[in-house]
């Protein structure tokens, strides 16, 4: 892996998947330089919208959030872009909280919306 390449995790709640896809499309020129990982549905949607290669994990509620969390614990993820929907209850909220807790604990840059995603991507 090249020194400048970051390993970026992509995940979004259902009502934020369109926003993440639009963000990824706008930043395709930068994202193509990095290794992308995504939960099943989100990663598939980003690939369809942008043509970028995203390594797919399981769907979030089926373990994808935990897979990203394990990658963080093992030092295999450098950035987490997680577009969270703060207005909708999530059936797997415990998994979501665990993933954000791990990103905080392991000091992995975490972006929860477009503005912070822009800032984080500019820094990698």
Model description:
A five-stranded parallel sheet has the order 3-2-1-4-5, sandwiched between helices. It is globular, with a radius of gyration of 13 Å. The model has no long low-confidence stretch (mean pLDDT 92). It has 124 residues and is an alpha/beta fold. It has one domain: 3-Layer(aba) Sandwich (Rossmann fold), CATH 3.40.50.1380. 47% of the residues lie in helices and 16% in strands. The protein is built from six helices and five strands; from the N terminus they run βααβαβαβαβα. Helix 1 crosses helix 3 (40-50) and helix 4 packs parallel to helix 5 (93-105). Helix 5 (93-105) links the parallel strand 4 (79-83) and strand 5 (110-111).
| CATH architecture title | 3-Layer(aba) Sandwich
Query: Care to count the β-strands?
Result: 5
What about the largest sheet? Answer: 5 strands, parallel
Ranges where pLDDT stays below 50 over 5 or more residues in a row are: none
- CATH homologous superfamily identity: Methylglyoxal synthase-like domain
User: What is the third-level CATH name, the topology?
Assistant: Rossmann fold
Catalytic activity: dihydroxyacetone phosphate = methylglyoxal + phosphate
GO molecular function: methylglyoxal synthase activity
Keywords: Lyase
Family: Belongs to the methylglyoxal synthase family.
